[in-house]
Design a protein that fits this description.
Elements: H1 3-6, H2 8-50, H3 54-63, H4 77-97, H5 107-123, H6 128-140, H7 142-162, H8 171-190, H9 199-232
Helix pairs in contact: 2-3, 2-4, 2-6, 4-5, 4-7, 5-8, 5-9, 7-8, 8-9
Length: 238
């Protein structure tokens, strides 16, 4: 038996050492997280002029005197885009939850409002039009399309969850991709929008939403009519 381990002083020392190490590790991670955020913010500010690339990320590190921190971005500029969309989700979540539920009684109103928040977030950046153009150009490259699509899907998942959607069937995907198509088409419009507060883009977006709703109503009407049509010809569907 180790006599030191049996001594209360030993146990107290080990416990204190563990607390110090835990505190040091936590502080180190916090510092590293702040550093990554600073670099990501700097890279985003450079995107309107330099585009979305690892070269932009390296330049951001260089400007902040943190050249060695480039290695902390294991997926390169993709990590910065993930950060951008995580911040977007955080923004719309806080903004949406600050409103009274009675202000947006219907799901369609909630989704429309959340998509509006997404557009306004993009429009809030300096040189927002050029920033959106850079991100869209990045997404058009074949090896980046899936990355961008997954990020948009993640945002749309947050939108529908905040709106109260809890579907687990195939509509889970169709709702998110439909909202995503409205969002992406609105981003394309935003890239050309010179109106104040992106008002033209918001009008465009709401028209797209109304079109989707009208199409859904038409589809439901057609679905209800089909049995009647087949009944005329005495055709069974089962």
């Amino acid at each position: 038996m180790n006599v030191f381990r049996a001594h209360p002083w030993y146990n107290a020392t080990v416990a204190n050492l563990a607390l110090v190490m835990e505190h040091t590790t936590g502080a180190s991670r916090s510092l590293e997280g702040c550093e990554v955020r600073r670099i990501s913010d700097e890279a985003i500010s450079l995107m309107p002029h330099m585009g979305v690339s690892d070269a932009t990320l390296r330049e951001a590190c260089k400007r902040l005197g943190l050249e060695n921190s480039f290695c902390k971005f294991h997926k390169g500029i993709h990590n910065v885009l993930e950060y951008f969309h995580e911040e977007l989700i955080d923004h719309i979540t806080r903004s949406f939850q600050s409103r009274s539920p009675t202000e947006l009684p219907r799901v369609r109103d909630k989704v429309g409002h959340l998509l509006e928040l997404c557009i306004l977030y993009n429009a809030s950046f300096p040189n927002s039009r050029q920033l959106v153009k850079s991100i869209l150009r990045f997404s058009l490259l074949p090896h980046n399309t899936c990355v961008f699509a997954s990020l948009v899907f993640k945002v749309m998942d947050a939108v529908w969850r905040l709106a109260g959607d809890s579907s687990t069937n195939f509509s889970y995907y169709t709702k998110r991709w439909t909202a995503g198509s409205v969002y992406i088409s609105s981003l394309i419009h935003l890239a050309q929008d010179t109106s104040e507060d992106a008002s033209e883009t918001l009008s465009f977006m709401h028209r797209r939403i109304e079109s989707v709703i009208a199409l859904q109503k038409l589809k439901n009407s057609a679905k209800n009519m089909l049995p009647k049509v087949f009944r005329v010809f005495d055709v069974r569907l089962d």
